[in-house]
Amino acid sequence: MTSLQLPVLDISLLHGNAVSRQHFLQQLAVAARDIGFFYLTGHGISTGQQQQILQLARQFFALPEPEKQAVSMVNSAHFRGYTQVGGELTQGRVDQREQFDIMREQTALALNSAMPAWQGLVGPNQWPAALPLMQTALLQWQQQLSELSVTLLSAFAQVLQQPATAFANTLQDGAYTHMKLIRYPGTSAVAQQGVGAHKDPGYLTLVLQDQHSGLEVLTDNGWVDAAPLAGAFVVNIGELLELASNGYLKATLHRVVSPPKGIERFSCAFFMAAQLDATVPLLNLPAELAAQAKGPASDPNNPLFYQVGENVLKGRLRSHPDVARKHYAALTQVV
Ligand SMILES: O=C(O)CCC(=O)C(=O)O
Ligand SMILES: [Fe+2]
Predict the structure, then answer these.
(1) Ligand 1: which atom is nearest the Cα of residue 182?
(2) Which pLDDT belongs to residue 335?
């Protein structure tokens, strides 16, 4: 077995007595500040259910191409649906993965030019006709991971010495949640970009991986492998937590290297952000933390926006140029 290079945190401690709770928060404080990536266990979601989600991913990607194309993301101004291998870019390069994206099930807004463009993100999902049970299973999963993320976010608030509810008013109308089923096909001898190095735009991400490695995290010691740990989720910090903490917490760069030829890797990523119309609060950190908060990263190729909808839309437009061209033509010049 590969030895694990990232910390393992048991969130059941958070629901225990004061000592175990404090122990969890201390571990979270170290993991969040040092690497921004860790394994989460003790979360109460069974391995049986995790396997069911990965099985749904296998079934979906095994559908005949026309069935997948019938729910193609390019048909959706709300960035929901299927993206074939080669349809997504990270750092301007093609990712070797296919994916199926859903978000909250909502009714599309009647847009006009006076409304901010990110309101186009609101809308319904697309569901494959051939898998009638998928909608219920994925929406239930989305709800469970949403609750887990809210709990985790309140623990982050405490690590930042804020009230546990510090983020609550950015979530009161419902967090922005986004999940994707992903298949990484095996590629030839040279390691390929499954997904290129990136930061996630939300508060937090929870990744469920199958038994194959590929996810890598950039640390002070270079790229390290987030090798699969059965039953655990891999958690990482997104840009909104970096912004809220004025850079005390970092959104860590990560990537996926394609599996070798003959192997396919499946994963399910769940991204949680504040509600789209929120502005991320800039937390008032106590002096000892504020002294270590040097401001969020400044990268001209990746501007960070405190307005949540704007930050999320930025990521979507860049990753899905075909959707951007078709539905957001006026914006593609400036992003
Ligand atoms: O598939 C994975 O393991 C991670 C995917 C990821 O980082 C992403 O989609 O943002
Ligand atoms: Fe990611």
Answers:
(1) 1
(2) 44
Nearest ligand (C-alpha, residue 95): 1
**pLDDT tens readout for residues 15-57:** 999 999 999 999 999 999 989 999 999 999 999 999 999 999 9
pTM of the model: 0.95
**Cα→Cα distances 29→15, 89, 182, 286, Å:** 17, 33, 30, 14
- Rounded to the nearest angstrom, the distance between the alpha carbon of 99 and the centre of ligand 2 is 13
pLDDT per position as a tens digit, 96-132: 999 999 999 999 999 888 899 999 999 999 999 999 9
Domains and CATH numbers, the chain: 8-327 (2.60.120.330)
Whether the Cβ atoms of residue 306 and residue 234 lie closer than 8 Å to each other: no
Is the pLDDT at 1 greater than 70? The verdict is: no
Distance in Å, CA 266 to ligand 2 centroid: 14
SS (H, E, C) the chain: CCCCCCCEEEHHHHHCCHHHHHHHHHHHHHHHHHCCEEEEECCCCCHHHHHHHHHHHHHHHCCCHHHHHCCEHHHCCCCCEEECCCCCEECCEECCCEEEEEECCCCCCCCCCCCCHHHHHCCCCCCCCCCCCHHHHHHHHHHHHHHHHHHHHHHHHHHCCCCCCCCHHHCCCCCEEEEEEEEECCECCCCCEEEEEECCCCCEEEEEECCCCCEEEEECCEEEECCCCCCCEEEEECHHHHHHCCCCCCCCCEEEECCECCCCEEEEEEEEECCCCCECCCCCCCHHHHCCCCCCCCCCCCCCCCEHHHHHHHHHHHHCHHHHHHHCHHHHCCC
- Ligand 1 atom with minimal separation from the 271 CA: 10
Q: What angle do CA 112, 107, 129 make, to 5 degrees?
A: 125
